[in-house]
């Protein structure tokens, strides 16, 4: 068993436990990857001590939607000012040049960026596999970074020649897709409490796969007892496409094909109407809210207030770095709060509620009640934020991190292992990785 760790003397602990307990001047004892005790003046001989004086402690943040490979295509000129479909058409030919190295390095960079923003658990939606790329290129990246990971085996099967959006070079045969889903689930999915890797099944979107693949993917996922993920109701184009092609709104299409339930979460859902919100709340279907990407692509403001009030599970996602163009989850939480306020009033969402969505909310969306909260027996995924710096100077409530707080974590622990120390990754040579990433990007520009 690893040496016990004692986080000592935190100014303020926001537990996000069942009672939303907040503690002052308390300690946290960690052993064997879990939280053993939380309380004042703990004494553990021989424990490694992390001094949390001048700090706020929260659960590690949870990212429920990402496309890690896109960290190689930030700020591409042709896609900077395009709406979703035009943006995709600009980027598809570039992504078709990727291979295993591009997928892996971009995932390492993307996950490291998330870790530095306090994220301890991230999903990923990888839906293209050009030139020999495989899902394990990202899984190995997560192992290298040390983050808890929920990769999803995405797919596209309807190319341009069949009326779809992606080029034919990026689509796959549907039988081969399902076969590879089985392969990666059998090889990498771990359903146990404290799992560092769980695999999901994730056809890209209703406009890039067939109705049959959507239905078969749901059947496969339930047979394997893994979760389902896709994009849904992202913008007005998405709604129009659904009505034209399927004769119904996206929520109805999802329900008809088995894509509702507590083992399903959808990305974006900017354009859900009241009936769809009620459906998702009733069935326990989760949503990954991606506010910065939705702003960047002009998709709109998701009705998160209405979703939460209806009892829906809502988490945060940074989305791909080609549509964000960043991977900072605490900035995402702040943006979520601000968008609800600008659209529904200054009292529409508090800083603490937005932080709850970014922690406990995201963990619940991903089916991880063992994460996203600080309580005895929960996983030791812990973010420690320095609030003695300039960002919080003059703040009357330093725990309102999203109003006046740092955008970068001081320390981050995942499964009790320190991934970030004093604002730096503990075991990655980031300058070398950045140079490798930039070299790959230049090669793609040729």
From TrEMBL:
EC number: 3.5.4.32
Domain Amidohydrolase-related per the UniProt entry, residue ranges: 56-418
Domain of life assignment: Bacteria
Coiled-coil regions, chain positions: none
Entry keyword set: Hydrolase, Metal-binding, Zinc
Pfam families to which the protein is assigned, alphabetical: Amidohydro_1
InterPro entries linked: Amidohydro-rel, Metal-dep_hydrolase_composite, Metal_Hydrolase, MTA/SAH_deaminase
A single GO molecular function term of this UniProt record: deaminase activity
PANTHER family for this protein: AMIDOHYDROLASE-RELATED DOMAIN-CONTAINING PROTEIN, AMINOHYDROLASE SSNA-RELATED
Family assignment from sequence similarity: Belongs to the metallo-dependent hydrolases superfamily. ATZ/TRZ family.
NCBIfam families the UniProt entry points to: PRK08203.1 (NF006055)
Official protein name in the record: 8-oxoguanine deaminase
């Amino acid at each position: 068993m690893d040496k016990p760790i004692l986080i000592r003397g935190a100014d303020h602990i926001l537990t996000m436990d069942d009672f939303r307990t907040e503690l002052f001047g308390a300690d946290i004892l960690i052993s064997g990857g879990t939280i053993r005790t939380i309380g004042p003046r703990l004494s553990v001989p021989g424990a490694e001590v992390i001094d949390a004086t001048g700090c706020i402690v929260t659960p590690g943040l949870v990212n429920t939607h990402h496309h890690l490979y896109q960290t190689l295509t930030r700020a591409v000129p042709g896609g900077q000012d395009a709406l979703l479909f035009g943006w995709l058409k600009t980027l598809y030919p570039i992504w078709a040049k990727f291979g295993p190295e591009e997928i892996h390095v971009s995932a390492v960079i993307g996950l490291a960026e998330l870790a530095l923003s306090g994220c301890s658990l991230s999903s990923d939606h990888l839906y293209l596999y050009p030139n020999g790329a495989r899902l394990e290129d990202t899984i190995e990246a997560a192992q290298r970074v040390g983050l808890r990971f929920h990769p999803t085996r995405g797919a596209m099967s309807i190319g341009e020649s069949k009326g779809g959006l992606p080029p034919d070079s990026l689509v796959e045969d549907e039988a081969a897709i399902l076969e590879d889903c089985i392969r990666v689930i059998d090889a990498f999915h771990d359903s146990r409490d404290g799992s560092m890797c769980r695999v999901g099944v994730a056809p890209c979107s209703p406009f890039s796969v067939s109705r049959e693949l959507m239905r078969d993917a749901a059947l496969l996922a339930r047979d394997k007892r893994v979760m389902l993920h896709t994009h849904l109701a992202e913008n007005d184009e998405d709604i129009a496409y659904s009505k034209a092609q399927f004769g119904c709104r996206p929520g109805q299409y999802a329900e008809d094909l088995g894509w509702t339930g507590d083992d399903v979460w959808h990305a974006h859902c900017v354009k859900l109407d009241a009936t769809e919100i009620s459906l998702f709340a009733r069935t326990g279907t989760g949503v990954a809210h991606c506010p910065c990407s939705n702003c960047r692509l002009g998709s709109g403001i998701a009705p998160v207030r209405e979703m939460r009030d209806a009892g829906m599970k809502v988490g945060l996602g940074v989305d791909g770095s080609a549509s964000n163009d960043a991977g900072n989850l605490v900035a995402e939480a702040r943006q979520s709060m601000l968008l609800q306020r600008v659209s529904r009033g200054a009292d529409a969402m508090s800083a603490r509620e937005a932080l709850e969505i970014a922690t406990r909310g995201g963990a619940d969306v991903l089916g991880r009640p063992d994460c996203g909260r600080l309580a005895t027996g929960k996983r030791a995924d812990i973010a420690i934020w320095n609030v003695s710096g300039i960002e919080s100077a003059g703040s009357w409530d330093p725990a309102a991190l999203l109003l006046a707080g740092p955008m970068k974590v001081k320390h981050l622990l995942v499964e009790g292992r320190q991934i970030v120390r004093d604002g730096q990754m503990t075991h990655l040579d980031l300058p070398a990785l950045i140079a490798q990433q930039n070299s790959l990007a230049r090669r793609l520009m040729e």
